[in-house]
């Protein structure tokens, strides 16, 4: 958990947070989880900052009250590991994607399972919802992306074109296009309405783990080749490559003023568990934030990573810590 302080320190530099404000949410969540934190794979807070959701290796999701430090609900139903969660914009529903090849929809206020989306033939690694909260998109180990009607649970369409697992999905700000990053080393741009493949972004020499956008003009991609690439979303042209990480880039975000990129990287056996701040305009490395972490025993850390998200006040939106990876977003 010590690396969390470094990530919050980074946010304080960008957003002007005090040390007291930085430490409060870290210590609060750490105190609530206590011994349970050893089994946590993902943590995400609600936008009002009152609750957070934790995903553990027992295939359950738990909702906690930050104020009372009590467990509010336990979401049970998945048969295998949960890899991803998403909340609708109105925060009424929680979605979870699992290695059991299903997506489940839950009432976030009661913990009740509403429906199960079935159709994928592989693990669900990434899910996202449309801005109007009507549709769900899922990326899977079956190399496809599926669009679902949230209200009915029906499969609307399938996007076919990738040749390996899909790890990251992003909808453009205008809602017209879907972007996907894959283990096939490419990013693809799709017409959401027709499923037509508009463009394929090629340039990475290893899998694409994470993608992000800058307004509606630029695409950022983090890869196992240790680089971040910036692309023109409309033309597909590669603009620049950010070089500085020495292991897989697992997370990318931009500061609210979109002047800087923050990227997190790390690997189980590598030494690069760092956050880098980049100048978007010049591509230059501004600062490196690094904390040495003892290499853990593989049996206790395989596939384990921690991601904490906080969208309160639309400022600091996400931070992360991991024995295996370093992940963040604001």
Please characterize this protein's 3D structure.
With 330 residues, the chain is mostly beta strands. 10% of the residues lie in helices and 45% in strands. The chain contains 3 helices and 26 strands. It has helices at 2-15, 19-33, 298-301; strands at residues 40-45, 51-56, 61-65, 71-75, 82-87, 93-98, 102-107, 113-118, 124-129, 135-140, 144-149, 155-160, 166-171, 177-182, 186-191, 197-202, 208-214, 218-223, 228-232, 238-242, 249-254, 260-265, 274-279, 285-290, 306-309, 318-321. The strands form 6 sheets. The protein has a 6-stranded mixed beta sheet with strand order 4-3-2-1-25-26. Strands 5-6-7-8 form a 4-stranded antiparallel beta sheet, with no helix packed on it. Strand 1 (40-45) and strand 2 (51-56) form a beta hairpin. Helix 1 packs antiparallel against helix 2 (19-33). The longest helix is centred in the N-terminal third of the chain and has 15 residues, at 19-33. The chain is globular and about 45 Å long. Residues 1-24 and 292-330 have low confidence and may be disordered.
Number of strands: 26
Q: Compute the separation of the termini in Å.
A: 18 Å
Q: Note the overall shape.
A: globular
**Rounded to an integer, what's the Rg over CA atoms?**
19 Å
Helical residue percent band: 10-25%
Which series of helices and strands comes N to C?
Answer: HHEEEEEEEEEEEEEEEEEEEEEEEEHEE
Rounded average pLDDT: 80
Largest sheet, strands/sense/barrel = 6 strands, mixed
């Amino acid at each position: 958990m010590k690396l969390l302080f470094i990530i919050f320190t980074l946010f304080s530099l960008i957003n002007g947070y005090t040390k007291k404000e930085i430490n409060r949410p870290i210590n609060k969540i750490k105190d609530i989880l206590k011994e349970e934190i050893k089994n946590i794979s993902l943590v995400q807070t609600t936008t009002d900052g009152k609750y957070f959701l934790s995903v553990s290796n027992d295939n359950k999701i738990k909702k906690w009250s930050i104020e009372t430090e009590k467990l509010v609900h336990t979401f049970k139903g998945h048969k295998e590991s949960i890899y991803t969660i998403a909340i609708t914009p109105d925060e009424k529903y929680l979605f979870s994607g699992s290695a059991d090849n299903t997506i489940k929809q839950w009432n976030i206020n009661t913990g009740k399972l509403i429906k199960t989306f079935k159709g994928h033939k592989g693990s669900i690694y990434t899910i996202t919802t449309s801005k109007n909260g009507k549709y769900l998109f899922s990326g899977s180990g079956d190399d496809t992306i599926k669009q679902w009607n949230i209200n009915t649970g029906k499969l609307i369409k399938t996007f076919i074109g990738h040749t390996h697992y899909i790890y990251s999905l992003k909808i453009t700000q205008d809602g017209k296009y879907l972007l996907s990053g894959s283990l096939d080393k490419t990013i693809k741009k799709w017409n959401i309405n027709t499923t037509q493949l508009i463009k394929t972004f090629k340039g990475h020499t290893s899998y694409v783990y994470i993608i992000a956008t800058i307004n509606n003009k630029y695409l950022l991609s983090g890869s196992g080749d240790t680089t971040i690439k910036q692309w023109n979303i409309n033309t597909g042209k590669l603009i620049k490559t950010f070089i500085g990480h020495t292991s897989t880039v697992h997370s990318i975000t931009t500061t609210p003023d979109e002047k800087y990129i923050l990227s997190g990287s790390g690997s189980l056996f590598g030494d690069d568990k760092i956050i880098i701040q980049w100048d978007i305009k010049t591509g230059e490395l501004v600062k490196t934030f690094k904390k040495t972490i003892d290499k853990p025993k593989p049996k206790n850390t395989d596939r384990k990573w921690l991601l904490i998200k906080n969208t309160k006040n639309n400022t600091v939106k996400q931070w992360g810590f991991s024995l295996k990876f370093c992940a963040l977003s604001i």
